[in-house]
Amino acid sequence: MSKPTIDQQIIDFNCNLAFPGKLPPGIRVMNPFQESPGIVEVMSAFYHKFYHDHHTRRLIVGINPGRFGSGSTGVPFSDTTRLREKCGIEIKGLKTYEPSSVFVYDVIDAYGGVKEFYKDFYITSLCPLGFTAIKPGGKEVNYNYYDSPALTKAAYGFIVDSLKEQLTWNINKDVCYCMGTGKNAKFLQALNAKEHFFKTIVPLEHPRFVMQYKSKSKAEYINKYITAFEEYR
């Protein structure tokens, strides 16, 4: 029996995601593959298009899915606009815009475009399911796995097991690029010191940070990403 292509492995992984822990009060897990009609089909179309092979890829790790990126499309750092304009995949009846997605696809363009980039890289999140919290007044907002010690503790085993499963695929373990130079990098570096997943962790500024606080210097951060990719090619 032949080994499944990486798109099959990713789709199977996503479709079977389930958070096993007990969440702190006021925190909700966000699983678009179970909650959002049509997301599995969109996600599957994306990975069939760009990952139907056995090519070795380097890993880029974000924090956890947000509501307007992979929370709405099933594809990390890809809002509906970027999926349509850059990847040729349309979600009818839904339009989302995420600044982080804009930055990531600017990086992808600088690398050579979606075909070249996705042939070489697989983007995931350290915690592959997202979280939300309800603010006073009832507004639902994104919540990161590291935003409270209680959630970090609840998510820890899920994070480790999810990463271990993804690393059974054809993933290059020499280097892992971490989106986020603060709490996400600190957590991943500590985890890697214990589990020895990768030889090297390369922290890079998170796309959201760049777009929110450093947008005038965006070109410099794009170049930083490309330089880091070239260094470990």
Automatic annotation (TrEMBL):
One Pfam match: UDG
The Uracil-DNA glycosylase-like domain, residue ranges: 50-228
SUPFAM superfamilies in the cross-refs: Uracil-DNA glycosylase-like
The protein's name: SMUG2 DNA glycosylase family protein
Record organism: Chitinophaga silvatica
